[in-house]
Design a protein that fits this description.
With about 425 residues, the chain is mainly beta. Helix content is about 10%, strand content about 40%. The protein is built from 8 helices and 30 strands. The chain has helices at about 230-235, 260-265, 270-275, 320-325, 355-360, 365, 405-410, 415-420, and strands spanning about 1-5, 15-20, 25-30, 35-40, 40-50, 55-65, 70-75, 85-90, 100, 115-125, 130-145, 150-155, 160-165, 170-175, 180-185, 190-195, 200-205, 210, 250, 255, 280-285, 290-295, 300-305, 315, 340-345, 350, 375-380, 385-390, 395-400, 410. The strands form 8 sheets. Strands 3, 4, 6, 7, 9 and 10 form a 6-stranded antiparallel β-sheet that branches. Strands 1-2-11-5-8 form a 5-stranded antiparallel β-sheet, with no helix packed on it. A 5-stranded antiparallel β-sheet has the order 12-13-18-15-16, with no helix packed on it. The longest helix has 9 residues, at about 260-265.
């Protein structure tokens, strides 16, 4: 088990778990030197896994106040084509005899406080022997009422929230309705008045069904890089060619491209995917407040991270998030992924029209997760309306006038659009 930068869901690294099972019914635990305390009284545990399609089972060992160990079951490892898949499980669960051990007293009940002890990967009797690699990221615990919720969206923009809990619990459900209709499992109806933008509800093992209008989500924005007019805008000015034998000059835009940025551009689609360079290299803060070497292309912005080994030393900026800052996009209820659709729990969006092209051109690594659904939008470059979809790092556009399927999908000129938004005069 090691920390690596070659894959990560958030941040710059993840846990890489390499294993080799020589037979069936084997298991391996990966533990830090000391158990890690989980804050509060957590009721759920979540983990993102990028798998290898092995079908092996991932779990987490927890130790409670009395030293009793509990194996929290998360799920079977799927394939890398599923991207980062989210697993979650209740902590206050039923545990079989082989899923808890030790403790004084040993009562098969999680007594707080709780510590994380290790990850467990096991090969069940149904899976063959073999070796592989999976990646783990964003281990998280959730404190608060141990209530399960499922939301269904109605055509009238109201929702049906289904809530239940193993033990009775008092919850406050955020709402924009003045009152809500609540139905018990036996069909009994009642009306609950909202107070201060929330509904006071009692949950138990029998589900309740709450019909109401949810509050509008606050816009989720990613901090934009600080406006550095003396850096990015000055870098827009046309430059003279750098004649060092390795740098390429583009007379179309009057800019040079060299070093790690040139290597990245050549290996990630070049002119077709990233477009022409529209600035020289410059140094300025990024959205994390740190200073990096940067360069804008027509369709992307790259920054150099010398702390990472190639090919992770060059990373794309989150232009899709920055350009759409302040806009909110409706999220979809979870739907099963299939041959024509991929749903992303991480952002609540799905890929349909752009699914195959997005996958072929690098997927999450190149464009990030989808942050909007498909929509009709007028293009700033030619004033025509196209079907588009925004991603963390760019916008995909469908140009049906192109007969070739690969050419009918294009990246938006977000590098140009963002610099214009910042007041730079892009030529």
């Amino acid at each position: 088990f090691s920390i690596v930068t070659e894959q990560h869901r958030t941040g710059n690294s993840s846990g890489k778990l390499q294993y080799n099972f020589t037979g069936t019914n084997q298991a391996v635990d990966f533990a830090p030197p000391q158990p890690k305390p989980l804050p509060g009284k957590p009721t759920r545990l979540g983990l993102f896994v990028r798998g290898d399609a092995s079908g092996n089972y991932i779990s987490v060992w927890l130790k409670d106040r009395d030293g009793e160990l509990f194996k929290v079951r998360l799920g079977a490892v799927t394939g890398a084509e599923d991207g980062w898949r989210y697993f979650e499980s209740r902590i206050n669960n039923y545990y079989f005899d082989w899923e808890h051990t030790g403790g004084n007293p040993s009562n098969n009940r999680v007594d707080y406080p709780v510590n994380f002890v290790s990850f467990r990967l096991e090969n069940t009797p149904d899976e063959p022997a073999g070796s592989g690699i999976i990646y783990l990221d964003d281990l998280q615990s959730f404190d608060g009422p141990d209530v399960t919720t499922v939301r269904f969206t109605r055509p009238d923009r109201q929702v049906v929230d289904v809530l239940w809990s193993v033990d009775p619990a008092q919850v406050n459900l955020p709402t924009s309705s003045a009152r809500a209709q609540v139905s018990d499992r036996d069909g009994t109806l009642r009306v609950v008045e909202a107070t201060g933008g929330s509904l006071a509800l009692t949950t138990g093992s029998s589900p309740i069904y709450v019909i109401h209008t949810p509050p509008k989500p606050a816009p989720v924005t990613t901090p934009s890089p600080p406006v550095e007019a003396n850096a990015s805008c000055q870098a827009v000015s046309r430059a003279a060619p750098i004649n060092n034998g390795t740098t390429r000059y583009f007379p179309e835009t009057g800019h040079n491209l060299g070093g790690a940025f040139k290597t990245y551009w050549e290996q990630h689609g070049g002119l077709f995917v990233l477009g022409f360079p529209i600035t020289e290299e410059f140094t300025a803060p990024s959205s994390d407040g740190k200073i990096y070497k940067q360069q804008y292309f027509e369709r992307a912005r790259v920054e150099y991270h010398p702390e990472n080994a190639p090919p992770n030393d060059v990373q794309l900026g989150l232009l899709g998030n920055w350009v759409t800052g302040g806009r909110s996009f409706q999220k979809l209820a979870p739907v099963p992924s299939g041959p024509t659709l991929t749903y992303f729990l991480e952002t609540g969006q799905a890929l349909r029209l752009f699914k195959d092209w997005w996958s072929r051109q690098g997927g999450i690594g190149s464009f990030g997760y989808p942050i909007s659904g498909e929509m009709q939008e007028k293009n700033a470059a030619d004033s025509k309306t196209y079907t588009v979809q925004y991603f963390e790092r760019n916008r995909l556009e469908h140009h049906p006038e192109q007969s070739n399927l690969d050419n009918s999908v294009m990246l938006g000129l977000l590098g140009v659009e963002y610099l214009v938004q910042q007041g730079c005069k892009v030529k």
